[in-house]
Amino acid sequence: MSTDEHARMMSANQANWDARTPVHLASRFYGLDQDLDPARWFASFEWDDLGELAGRDVLHLQCHLGTETIAFAQRGARAVGLDFSEASVAAANGIAEKAGLDVTYVRANVYDAVTALGGRRFDVVYTGKGALCYLPDLDRWADVVSRLLRPGGRLYLVEFHPLLNSLGPKPGPGEGPELLLRHDYLGGGGPVHRDATHTYTDGPAVEGATDSYEWMHGISEVVNALVRAGLTIRRLTESDELPWPRWPQMVRTASGWWRLPEPRIPLLYGLLATR
Predict the structure, then answer these.
(1) pLDDT tens-digit map of 27-41
(2) Of 43, 109, 124, 248, which is most buried by a Cβ count within 10 Å?
(3) Which sign, positive or negative, has the C-alpha torsion 118, 121, 39, 236?
(4) What is the pLDDT of residues 67-91, one digit of tens each?
(5) Contacts of 147 (CB under 8 A, 6+ apart)
(6) What's the domain count of the chain?
(7) pTM for the predicted model, two decimal places
(8) What residue numbers bound the domain in which 106 lies?
């Protein structure tokens, strides 16, 4: 697929996320009309792997509303969020201002992050939870991450497991409640086109730009892209918990997150890499 075609699809995604933003602001899923609690979006192993953040420069790529970005500021980091959606960046600025937190947000495509950030480098680059699927080229992404990190800096990627993405979110017509593999686990099959008036939240219908494109990326593709970019993989964690109940049969755990009663399968993974 040509670079121009990828650019067209990413432009469609950008318009889609602009349209999603007011929906997400109004949703109970994000709960932004209640007490802000960004820590609820983090698994405990994330904080163990991220380590001390006070006084560090932390960049959150593809940050959307900045719900995780502000958690870094709360822990004393010099936090920066980057997203390609102008509506998301405007909303994120408002959320941080309301919380009384000093967070810098930059609107840019992740592939243009080095230029958009003026060559600034960071101690930590954080990304994930539904971000990589909107990127067609992981080698290009990994090169950007490497250029954003200081020597010794760390990338922390927390992403939905490709097995989760392979399972249909809901049964097809005439099917029972069993979870079935309906989509590719491995990448390389081209983008999946979606035309949806509702997002993963409970918010109202999306108005306007409803088209979006997603790319599957297996774990080996992610790991090999980072290795080719010169990063060293330090740790990989697979988790059977999600921060929200994707399926009705999920049960709440002591952490406040959700897991399937059976079978135990990976739904989320955390990857720590260093430059």
Answers:
(1) 666 656 666 688 888
(2) 124
(3) positive
(4) 899 999 999 999 999 999 999 999 9
(5) 114
(6) 1
(7) 0.90
(8) 3-274
Angstrom distance (rounded) from CA 253 to CA 256: 5
Q: Are strands 149-160 and 268-274 parallel, antiparallel or unpaired?
A: antiparallel
Close Cβ partners of 266 (under 8 Å, ≥ 6 residues apart): 161, 163, 164, 238, 239, 240
What type of residue sits at position 207?
E
Q: How many residues does the chain have?
A: 275
**Which position has the token pair 């539904």?**
130
Residue that is written with structure tokens 């720590």 in the block: 272
Q: What is the CATH number of the domain that holds 226?
A: 3.40.50.150
Residue whose token pair is 């950030």 = 117
* Calpha distance 115→162 (Å, rounded): 30
Report the 10 Å Cβ neighbour count for 220.
11
- The Cα–Cα gap between 238 and 221 comes to 16
Give the whole-angstrom CA distance, residue 136 versus residue 11: 12
One DSSP character per residue, the chain reads --HHHHHHHHHHHHHHHHHHHHHHHT-TTTTTTS---GGGGS-HHHHHHH---TT-EEEEES-TT-TTHHHHHHTT-EEEEEES-HHHHHHHHHHHHHHT---EEEE--GGGHHHHTTT--EEEEEEESS-GGG-S-HHHHHHHHHHHEEEEEEEEEEEE-HHHHHB-SSPPTT--S---B-S-SSS-S-PEEEE-SS-SSSS----S--EEEE----HHHHHHHHHHTT-EEEEEEEESEESS-SSTT-EE-TTS-EE-SSS----EEEEEEE-
Taking the CA atoms of 213, 218, 224 and 226 in sequence, report the sign of the dihedral they define.
positive
